[in-house]
Write a structure and sequence with these properties.
The complex is a heterodimer of chains A (412) and B (272). Chain A has 9 helices and 22 strands. Chain A is an alpha+beta fold. Chain A has 2 domains: 238 residues, 3-Layer(aba) Sandwich (Rossmann fold); 149 residues, abc- transporter (atp binding component) like domain (Coagulation Factor XIII, Chain A, domain 1), CATH 2.70.50. In chain A, helix 3 crosses helix 5 and helix 4 packs across helix 5. With 272 residues, chain B is an all-alpha fold. Chain B is globular, with a radius of gyration of 19 Å. Chain B starts with a helix and ends with a helix. Classes of the chains: A alpha+beta (412), B mainly alpha (272). Chains A and B meet through helix 3 of A and helix 2, helix 5 and helix 13 of B.
Chain lengths: 412, 272
């Protein structure tokens, strides 16, 4: 029998304020007189979510902000009740939803241990036995009899985490808690989570924006989007799907941004009409395969005669880190450009950037003195994809941006 | 109702920890500490004694300060635990949003906190009685039962008020007004014997007198305060004629109040 069953769970919220006393009274009157009441359109935080979890499974829940992850956890922890559907949890739950919820600033660390243990339902006897272990883990021996209000925020969170994980529950619900404290403590938290999962075989639900962590810890991942359960499957597939989902989102916002052309500096002698990308087969595309050939075609509209133009073409990340710049000087022979439409072709063999979203910047300078006539960045979003590598391992922000053409061998 | 008792037992550690936290938080950084808890009944006693020296209230042969203090102990206990109980859910919003346990723990905790203050007031009463050479009778053994009844009355209001206060904060604003009015409708400043004498013996309101007395005793506090004084000073058991109208009212309302609370509980985390 599954330890957690979620059956067609739907949760609706009323948007805006709850009805005032006056409105309630008026609605009551309308009901009595047989007229319809004014109903506001409800907001579906969860829409027909259906899944079940077996004992010992470690399930990650990922999705964008507002996808319904925390709402789902609240239902599993019995804090919220479903509008429609059913949630069955067989076993006791340790909710680590934001650790330190019950920490009272006026009490000392020791008093808080007892209070929070009581809140989590840990018997006093158990906590007496584990007291030293908790204090030790939280690294606050010397401050244990100081009121928590004098603690640093890191110390408070450490205390909260070590109390919560000392609970002997069947199911652990973790919402972004691993991002607590300094790096050394994060490592400790991570190790403790890992031992809870791997050695003690607990059922764990983990919500995190750290996709790497989810892929590393979990045996199964749920992807939520706008209240729907979009995907449910093995970590690699679901995480990759999540990456392309978020990249599409970035691209969409960029597409609408680039139309504004706010970032173009031009002397009005020359205008950029379009940028197109073509793959190895010569087909127009907006996504580039990692380590495949790609060709860019820039169409310019020249209004005045331009002597000795030099073109610059560069790539940068969405957060404006310049990755590469190529210039046509000594590579493209061009004495002058006459008014009219011109196309510049730019070919990259074995496109080296790792999967992710990148953007293009373009500049045009004139003559010996590199007099600038056109410069624009953030122009054209390109999505780099690679179907056969795990995105969490090779994602831009964690492992750099550039892939090298290497050969591995083992000499023994 | 059995469920409440079961929950109280199961969550007794949580209730005591939370109550302990309340007490520490309230008095930790104050110089006088828990003495503040008894200041309210003491001040009211002084004021009432002063007022009585102008208006003259018939109180029998028991010294007025100790008589009115004995009335103020259950009254202040009831008043404070009700008003704390009503705001107990809203003031614990962070906990309600983060973790589940039966929400009646909050009103119960408010009550447990006030019990500690009640014990201190009782100690002061004992000192006053010693000063006036008054000895409690064997009927003083009724006191725990009377306090328990006062708690049930306070809970009846707290459950309903606390749940409603989550939706409409007006409740917490209106309650102190209602409670201070109720004090004048309860035998705090004057003894119940005086009301009894006017209405039952002298029939001061004509044919309405007996009905009026029943209406007066529908207020459970009338019976509670009177019984408290009787068992302490008058060497008499509680007067059940003064107790039963209020008790019937409470027994009739409590289940609905509790069910209302349990129903509303499902949406606390969403609305609060």
């Amino acid at each position: 029998m599954s330890i957690i069953e979620v059956k067609h769970l739907t949760k609706e919220y009323q948007l805006g304020h709850i009805a005032s006393l006056k409105e309630t009274a008026l609605n009551g009157l309308r009901l009595l007189t047989g007229k319809g009441t004014h109903k506001k359109e409800p907001f579906k935080a969860l829409d027909d979510v259906h899944f079940s979890i077996e004992e010992g499974e470690v399930v990650g829940i990922i999705g964008h902000n507002g996808a319904g992850k925390s709402t789902l956890l609240k239902h599993l922890a019995n804090i919220s009740k479903p509008t429609k559907g059913q949630v069955i949890v067989r076993g006791n739950v340790a909710p680590l939803i934001e650790v330190g919820a019950g920490v009272s600033p006026e009490l000392t660390g020791r008093e808080n241990i007892f209070l929070n243990a009581a809140i989590l339902g840990i018997p006093k006897k158990t906590i007496m036995q584990k007291l030293d272990e908790i204090i030790d883990f939280a690294e606050i021996e010397e401050f244990i009899d100081t009121p928590v209000k004098r603690y640093s925020s890191g110390m408070t969170v450490k205390l909260g985490f070590s109390i919560a994980t000392s609970m002997d529950a069947d199911i652990l619900i973790v919402d972004e808690v691993l991002a607590v404290g300094d790096l050394a403590f994060q490592r400790k938290c991570f190790d403790r989570m890992e031992s809870l999962i791997k050695k003690q075989g607990k059922t764990v639900l983990l919500v995190s924006h750290n996709i790497r962590q989810v892929e590393h810890l979990c045996s199964r991942v749920l992807l939520m989007d706008h209240g729907h359960l979009l995907m449910d499957g093995d970590p690699k597939t679901v995480c990759n799907q999540f990456y392309s989902l978020s990249e599409r989102q970035i691209k969409n916002t960029q597409d609408s941004n680039s139309k504004l052309r706010q970032n173009v500096l031009s002397s009005n002698d020359i205008d950029l009409v379009s940028i197109e990308a073509f793959d190895g087969q010569g087909l127009a595309t907006s996504s580039v395969q990692y380590f495949e050939d790609v060709e860019f075609r820039l169409t310019f509209n020249v209004k005045n005669r331009l002597p000795k133009p030099v073109f610059g073409f560069g790539f940068h990340t969405t957060d404006m880190l310049y990755l590469a710049t190529m210039q046509s000087i000594n590579a493209l022979e061009c004495e002058e450009l006459m008014p009219g439409t011109h196309q510049v072709q730019f070919k990259v063999s074995r496109f080296p950037f790792l999967p992710g979203i990148y953007s293009i910047r373009i500049g045009v300078v004139l003559g010996e003195f590199f007099h600038p006539v056109f410069y624009a960045e953030n122009l054209f979003p390109i999505q780099v994809t690679a179907p056969n590598i795990s995105r969490s391992i090779n994602s831009g922000s964690n492992e750099g941006f550039i892939g090298l053409d290497v050969t591995w061998s083992l000499i023994s | 109702m059995l469920q409440v008792a079961k929950n109280i037992y199961q969550y007794r550690e949580l209730i005591s920890e939370l109550a302990w936290k309340n007490i520490i938080v309230r008095y930790k950084q104050s110089y006088l500490g828990i003495v503040w808890a008894v200041l309210k009944p003491l001040m009211l006693m002084l004021i009432f004694t002063l007022v009585r020296s102008f208006v003259g209230i018939e109180t029998g042969d028991i010294p007025y300060p100790v008589l009115t203090f004995a009335a103020l102990i259950p009254w202040v206990f009831f008043q404070e635990s009700t008003s704390e109980g009503v705001i107990s859910v809203t003031s614990n919003a962070p906990l309600i949003k983060k973790i589940y346990f039966p929400r009646e723990v909050f009103p119960l905790t408010a009550m447990a906190t006030k019990l500690v203050e009640l014990v201190i007031s009782l100690a002061i009463l004992a000192i006053m009685m010693a000063y006036y050479h008054l000895l409690p009778s064997i009927y003083a053994l009724w006191i725990p039962a009377i306090i328990a009844y006062a708690m049930i009355v306070a809970l009846t209001i707290s459950f309903f008020g606390a749940a409603l206060n989550v939706y409409y904060r007006d409740i917490a604003q209106a309650l102190p007004v209602g409670l201070s009015l109720l004090m004048y409708g309860s035998p705090v400043m004057y003894p119940l014997a005086l009301v009894h004498k006017k209405l039952i013996v002298e029939q001061a309101a004509g044919e309405w007198s007996n009905t009026l007395y029943t209406i007066y005793t529908l207020n459970p506090l009338a019976g509670i305060i009177d019984s408290f004084q009787r068992v302490l000073f008058k060497n008499l058991p509680p007067d059940f004629n003064a107790l039963y109208p209020g008790a019937i009212l409470i027994v009739a309302i409590l289940p609905f109040s509790y069910l209302f609370f349990k129903r509303a509980e499902n949406w606390f985390a969403d609305v609060i």
